[in-house]
Design brief:
The structure is a homodimer.
Chain A lengths: L5 H8 L3 H8 L9 H14 L5 H8 L4 E6 L6 H15 L3 E6 L4 H13 L5 E3 L7 H8 L4 E4 L9 E5 L1 H15 L4 E5 L5 H16 L9 E3 L5 H14 L5 E4 L2 H13 L9 E6 L12 E4 L2 H18 L5 E4 L2 E3 L18
Parallel strand pairs in A: 1-2, 1-3, 3-4, 4-5, 5-11, 6-7, 6-8, 8-9, 9-10
Antiparallel strand pairs in A: 10-12
Chain A binds a DNA duplex through helix 2 and helix 4.
DNA sequence: CTTGGAGATGCTATCGTTTGCATCATGGCT
DNA sequence: AGCCATGATGCAAACGATAGCATCTCCAAG
């Protein structure tokens, strides 16, 4: 297990090492006599031969390994994506080097350097920012890259994303149908595509339903975290403008919003409704169970990996795949309180 | 970025490639003239030289990469552990190849083969079973291995684990102090050390408090999942023996228990208390907030990685590190119902 | 009988890095 | 002045796999 090499197999099978290499590689197997190939394969199996990827990589410039940059593995959104990635890669004999970037640009650069050093064949980047210099450099150097979940301002990159505008539109339709008119938005970071796109979709929905855009009811989080959601909501309170619902940039922000409501003993959904985004694991078990937009995360990862493999092997042109979303209505949304009983005496 | 090699740096610095290699490696730097070294380093920086790990690996038999086998990334326990692993490894210039095994022995073998093929320097295994043939083979071949969170029946492996007996003891003390006497246990899979150890600790606690061991109140889950927890609890109901509290083998099982209670409109904690294990993220936000035993997951991963690096570099003898746990008392535990009002008219 | 083509396999350079050994210069010491 | 220890650097052989090219065998067609 720990070490038969091509030369060992060759000696044992009584053939030259080159023949063994050809016999063991399905793509070149046709070039060697069928019986010989069968014998070689049998010997290889018996000796427990496993190709040494380092040796192969040196010669072929392919490591059959890709690098995956994940902003935060503790966000349940990402393990699901990773799982999709793994499954797609495994079919092709690929493996992923997964690293957390913490949304830290410096750490991201270090990680990219470490991955390049390991000669990864391509990158899956779920941590892209709109203006992402590291991503820019990778593209400039012709490294295959697929961006997941988010996009970059740079149009030259392939991406797999969810239909964010549709998700926000569905959420807004739901809230409007319940009777909400004063809807706030705790937006994701402005340097991410998801933050911007969802904010735009939010404003578009306001227009569509003839609701007024109020800048006091929009606050932008500095990160996709629970703590940031809480801070933003406190900020919203301090502005003193009444609202009966909050559309959060993602589920963690939504949980933060709910924390802030609890702090102020404002019942959710009785006095304020909250909608999240992504439908992370456990969202339905929270208290209250979170109304949110489900994103097909596993598929997102799987499609992303497929796209990347395509780029590596077929130098395919860039493309963007958009996956459909579904609004999951649970307990965190309800009709607004009657006038006079609402927040700030609304 | 995508490609200066030693020979490029050598040419540019007007020196031999061997000298460059020595100058760039801190361990051999003393063997080259200080000024020359400084010049070489400067040239390397300017050209954006990054060592080609494949080339180095071929020569040194070290890939500076380790393999991490995780049973289920979607269990929030594991991303935390992984994060600790990453941080420890990064300090040493190492990277982890992370793979999910799904508790599937066949998949695990495939993954191990893929990782061995990539010449990983060692393994971190969080998915060990008590009788784990793949693990056995790795040890036999002298591959450095550290087992995380669980142990194996095989004593020859280093491990970092939580103080499971203490955790269960604390949980039992808490329940007994609340007045519970009929306590059930939904144990983890019998082929995992955590399943067995926690079960034993559960029974030891029964003895300690003079409570009767009742085999009808112990049921063993086939996996650490929510669904398994639910199935086990239904099973418990079918046996018809009354109980007022359940100690679950881990948090996912506990969530499954709570689901089964809800199914039967049995309020938790009013009529049945539930305790989990691990304190996964979001446990405190569940409904009800889960009383559970906190395991220092980040540290568990970090220590495990340190231990593994030690084994790789210093061939240290095997050792086991046990980390302390803390009982987190939340909303899923309460005094038992008064006699006559309890389950099955207890 | 010769020739040529096809199929099978051997030979060998190569990928980028490391490292034991050889070489060379310098300068101190006898 | 001659010698040697020392420090600095060059040289070249690996590590394991791949692939272009060469070689060889065999058989069919001319």
């Amino acid at each position: 297990m720990a070490g038969a090499k091509l030369v060992d197999v060759a000696r044992e099978a009584g053939v030259h090492v080159g023949t063994v290499s050809r016999a063991l590689n399905p793509a070149t197997r046709s070039r060697v006599n069928a019986e010989t190939a069968a014998r070689i394969i049998e010997v290889a199996r018996r000796l427990g031969y496993e190709v040494n990827i380092a040796g192969r990589a040196l010669r072929t410039q392919r490591t059959q390994t890709i690098g995956a940059l994940i902003p935060d593995l503790a966000n349940p959104l990402f393990p699901r994506i990773v799982r999709g990635v793994e499954d797609s890669l495994e079919k092709a004999g690929y493996t992923a080097l997964i690293t957390s970037t913490d949304n830290n640009a410096q750490r991201e650069r270090r990680m990219i350097a470490a991955l390049l050093s390991r000669q990864v064949d391509g990158f899956l980047i779920a941590s892209a920012r709109l203006e992402d210099q590291a991503l820019e450099e990778l593209l400039q150097n012709g490294v295959p890259v697929v961006v997941l979940n988010r996009t970059s301002a740079n149009a030259r990159t392939s991406a797999v994303i969810a239909d964010d505008p549709q998700g926000i539109a569905d959420a807004m339709a739901h809230l409007v149908a319940l009777g909400h008119e004063r809807i706030a938005h705790v937006a994701g970071p402005g340097d991410t595509s998801t933050g911007q796109v969802r904010l735009q979709a939010f404003e578009a929905a306001l227009d569509r339903y003839g609701l007024q855009r109020r800048s006091e009811l929009v606050v932008c989080a500095e990160a996709y975290t629970i703590a940031a959601g809480t801070r933003c909501t406190r900020d919203l309170f301090n502005r003193g403008k009444p609202f009966t619902a909050v559309v959060a940039g993602n589920d963690l922000l939504a949980l933060g919003v709910i924390d802030a409501l609890k702090e102020n003993r404002i019942p959710c959904p009785e006095r304020v409704s909250v909608v999240g985004f992504n439908d992370i694991d456990f969202a339905e078990r929270m208290s209250p169970a979170l109304t949110t937009v489900r994103v097909p995360t596993y598929e997102l990862g799987a499609r992303g990996a497929d796209l990347l493999l395509d780029m590596i092997y077929r130098e395919r042109e860039i493309s963007t795949v958009t996956l459909p979303v579904t609004l999951m209505i649970r307990e965190s949304t309800a009709p607004p309180p009657l006038p006079g009983t609402g927040l700030f005496g609304l």
